[in-house]
Design a protein that fits this description.
The structure is a homodimer.
Chain A lengths: L1 E5 L4 H13 L1 E2 L2 E2 L2 E6 L8 H4 L3 E6 L7 H5 L6 E4 L5 H6 L1 H26 L4 E7 L22 H18 L4 E7 L1 E2 L12 H11 L4 E3 L6 E5 L1 H13 L2 H4 L4 E3 L3 E4 H12 L7 E3 L3 H7 L9 H5 L8 H11 L7
Parallel strand pairs in A: 1-4, 1-6, 4-5, 6-7, 7-8, 8-12, 9-11, 10-14
Antiparallel strand pairs in A: 2-3, 11-13
Chain lengths: ~325, ~325
């Protein structure tokens, strides 16, 4: 099986690459080729992992007219389309957001369709969507039938790409799935431009002895999954039969609904109460205004029935960070 | 007030034009200019109606790179964006559907945004969307919160345009409203390429002594409003304050839920049982398959609270046709 990952240099892209190379297969089908693409060339994975897989990296700008043709030249069987600019940037730069997040995806879909028509090429495409397709006001629990009324340009772009993908899926140009990922927590590494960054910062930084700013009230509730779970989602999606996915190919995923207070309680429990001393409360009206429009709790009934699973306690989410991502200072 | 109507040569566009010229105002504000645009030049309205309004017509292809600039050159205060290719054609010609229904709308929105940034131009834009943004399976009654999962390319394009419009509305580039029109019945004139055409054909043709084909079962239920009501919707939308519309600017509208059997009972009641003899039952699998995915009944609570109203009996829908549209043969 040939696998293409767009956005492969991102946090999720890199973890997915590592996991696929470790597994060497998906649902029993050996991975033979991987093309890792991003706007900056993704790191070449360490050779120990790649012995049986031909891995190529490609620096490519999705808004380039020939990008999609290059990405699809080898006709990958499975495409993970993760490339996107994040919510904060898409809000700050209207044109760039639509160019990359919408036009980039459309160009990929159009090229797949061209190849489908000429060549019967019909790949599986797994699109990293987001709960940002939803916007307040919300019911207490959001079910699988709730309307998409995004309140950011990022969420609008994700919702539009879901619709485009679903139409291509319905017409049989590809086998599409859009996964509305929960907010990923704890994000390793440096803060990015996502407005949701603080949910990770207030845990990751204190764990590493660094101070962090909490810009919202302790009562703020949100919907989370760990990076490891996000990768599990992406892998599991690739194992579903098209008839399990059907025409409603965008789906909410299981996650953990937690308040900031619950995050901090877990932090104290797992790492110790000293970690809390590194957090400074500094309310930020702009961030509060954005967060007030975010979903808090889902009942992801359909995805759970399809076998997707997520963490059930925030302690587990913190432990995933300690096991998978905490920098091993001094070792 | 300057008014632009795209799709002005269509059935709804022509009726809206006539109504606006008759009224001469919207919510007490006099209409001074009207620009009627379509891919074929709309008919110049009769002079008696246009005495106080400067009316211009324009033949323009929305997919032309300069079309939006030409349409917006005079900075209309109110834009009715009705132009679209219909469901049957958008399904048959994938590229044409996306080019006109999606790219055409996006180009209009982008040009408005440019003018907003340079010139603080902030028009009101009323977009003719459709219940085709919904796709089966449905709950018994579709409420205002139900998800958009279209099962046609036409419905996909309408849903995407709603999302684009909502993002522009949220950012303040314009004041947008998307009206999810029920199926308009009885459509006057000739059948068009809409898959829903038979709902009108089975009434209009017998009323005029012409035979008609019924391709579905009598039990098929659907959601209707008359052309007159559709025009009322478009006018009423223009009178709403932006704060009444808010950020969820796409809305379901009231209508009448009726089965084909109920349509035919009304036909017999209003026009006489002889009309039924002109209807031939000829089941069409393709049309049945499409119709099976269409919504049947809505609870358009929000639009009703905002003052939108529709017919409450199918007899009334037939009477509207007799009063407004039946050709006066021999007079």
């Amino acid at each position: 099986m040939k696998v293409l990952i767009t956005g492969a240099a991102g946090m999720i892209g890199a973890k997915l690459t590592e996991r696929l190379l470790n597994d060497g297969q998906i649902a029993g089908v050996p991975i033979t080729h991987m093309l890792l693409a991003d706007v900056v060339s993704p790191a070449q994975p360490t050779s120990s992992l790649t012995s049986s897989v031909e891995v190529k990296t490609l620096a490519i700008d999705l808004t380039d007219a020939v990008a999609a043709t290059q990405l699809l030249a080898q006709e990958p069987d499975l495409i993970y389309h993760l490339a996107a600019i994040v919510s904060g940037e898409a809000e700050a730069d209207f044109d760039k957001g639509y160019r990359i997040n919408l036009d980039g995806t459309r160009s990929l879909l159009d090229t797949i369709r061209d190849k489908h028509i000429t060549n019967d090429y019909t790949p599986r495409l797994i699109f990293a969507s987001s709960i940002a397709v939803y916007g307040a006001p919300f019911p207490e629990v959001i079910d699988d039938n709730f309307q998409q009324t995004p309140l950011t340009s990022y969420g609008t772009q994700k919702a539009i790409c879901e619709l485009l993908l679903a139409d291509c899926n319905r017409r049989g140009f590809l086998q599409g799935i859009s996964l509305r990922l929960p907010t990923i927590c704890i994000r390793p590494g440096q803060p990015n431009k996502a407005a949701s960054g603080f949910f990770s910062n207030i845990l990751r930084e204190p764990i590493n002895g660094i101070s962090a700013v909490l810009p919202v009230q302790d009562t703020v509730r949100h919907w989370f999954a760990s990076p490891r779970t996000a990768i599990d989602f992406l892998i599991h999606a690739a194992t579903l039969a098209p008839e399990q996915v059907g025409l409603r190919c965008a789906m909410n995923l299981p996650g953990l609904s937690a308040t900031v207070a619950e995050q901090l309680e877990s932090l104290a429990r797992v790492v110790g109460t000293d970690a809390l001393k590194l957090i400074t409360r500094k309310p930020d009206d702009a961030i509060n205004a954005i967060v007030a429009n975010w979903p808090e709790t889902f009942n992801a009934k359909r995805a759970i029935a399809l076998g997707f699973t997520a963490e059930r306690s925030f302690d587990d989410i913190i432990k995933v960070y300690l096991e998978d991502d905490k920098p091993n200072v001094g070792s």
